Write a sequence for this structure.
């Protein structure tokens, strides 16, 4: 005997909670640039009226976006679009910690900016045609005034149209802060792959280490709104006095 209702659960429509629907609408407004980084968004009362839902529903949606580091609540002032200028999120993507537990003073030096044909992997990640050029930024990070990280950062020229070393050196904030201020591109999540390597001569010389010094290699794929991949970053990390720390929740 065939049970004609056996697949009913598979074909039933799936409904998300109302606050999740509001969260999706707010995220859509962020993706479309209705509110830019650092700008205040409408109050919960205004958003509740706009979407014809309760203020509590809006609050729950905003709470989740704040937990995702996309919005920032400021007591007595309102809710703002999160920015990489905020102290809270400025170093959210830097996961290196000193073995001693002490705070690390970081310094960034732009070594070079070039427009080159990337490798096939980088080109595929960035969605570039076969002979298209990409922006390659070479950067050296120092921790407590000692070289610690050598990076090659690849960007699409479709988005980052006029990157030069001079422009980058004139900006005093963080790299992601510059992307945000200059190109209205905000990094909101990243995927990293890690492995142990030995550095080539360029990496070794830049980090001022011996040829046989072990390094941690990290490939980072960084995404903006609408899950758009906008950066491929290769980093060689010196871990003799530092370690990579990641919190799993």
């Amino acid at each position: 005997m065939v049970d004609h209702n056996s697949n009913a659960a598979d074909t039933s429509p799936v409904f998300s909670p109302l606050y999740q629907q509001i969260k999706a609408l707010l995220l859509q407004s962020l993706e479309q640039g209705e509110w830019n980084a650092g700008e205040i968004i409408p109050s919960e009362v205004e958003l509740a009226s706009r979407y014809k839902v309760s203020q509590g529903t809006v609050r729950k949606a905003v709470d989740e976006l704040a937990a995702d580091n996309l919005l920032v609540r400021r007591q007595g002032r309102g809710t703002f679009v999160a920015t990489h200028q905020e102290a809270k999120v400025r170093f959210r993507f830097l996961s290196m910690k000193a073995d001693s537990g002490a705070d690390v003073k970081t310094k960034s030096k732009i070594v070079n900016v070039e427009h080159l044909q990337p490798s096939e992997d980088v080109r595929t990640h960035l969605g570039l045609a076969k002979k298209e050029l990409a922006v390659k930024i070479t950067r050296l990070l120092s921790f407590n005034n000692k070289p610690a990280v050598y990076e090659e950062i690849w960007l699409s020229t479709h988005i980052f149209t006029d990157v030069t070393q001079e422009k980058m050196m004139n900006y005093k904030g963080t790299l992601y802060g510059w992307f945000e201020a200059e190109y209205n591109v905000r990094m909101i999540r990243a995927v990293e792959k890690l492995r142990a390597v030995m550095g080539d001569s360029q990496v070794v010389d830049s980090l001022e280490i011996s040829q046989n010094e072990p390094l941690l290699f990290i490939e980072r794929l960084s995404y903006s709104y609408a899950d758009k991949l906008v950066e491929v970053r290769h980093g060689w990390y010196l871990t003799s006095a530092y370690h990579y720390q990641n919190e799993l929740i």
Summary: The longest strand covers residues 106-116. The chain is about 25% helix and 30% strand.
